[in-house]
Specification:
The termini are far apart. Helices cover 0% and strands 53% of the residues. The protein has no helices and 11 strands. The protein is mostly beta strands.
């Protein structure tokens, strides 16, 4: 059974940094593409960043240059380093993968950027 568990809940001031972690289990982590999504109140869930099983990354325009997605296959863990945070980054952040066309999501972790 695939499980994705996010951690890194935080209240951060604008300009601050935070690292999110997603621990994966029940899957051969190194084989699969992984992603971070976020959803703000009243808005649709949106892609933040993706990393494929070869380590190639891509980012939404809104976070490019500020966020970095990475993975540690030995630890079955996905990371999202978030720098220069802005109030508009406030959202619930979700870890995601697709296996055989089935989507798997973590429970999400709340990030609030406020002074």
């Amino acid at each position: 059974q695939v499980q994705l568990v996010e951690s890194g809940v935080g209240l951060v001031q604008p300009g601050g940094s935070l690292r999110l972690t997603c621990a994966a289990s029940g899957m051969t982590f190194r084989l699969y593409h992984m992603g971070w999504y976020r959803q703000a109140p009243g808005k649709q869930r949106e892609l933040v960043a993706r990393i494929n099983n070869g380590g190639i990354t891509n980012y939404s325009d809104s976070v490019k240059g500020r966020f970095t997605i990475s993975r540690d296959n030995a630890k079955s863990t996905l990371y999202l380093q978030m720098n220069s945070l802005k109030p508009e980054d406030t959202a619930r952040y979700y870890c995601n993968t697709y296996i055989a066309s089935a989507g798997y999501w973590g429970q999400g972790t709340q990030v609030t950027v406020s002074s």
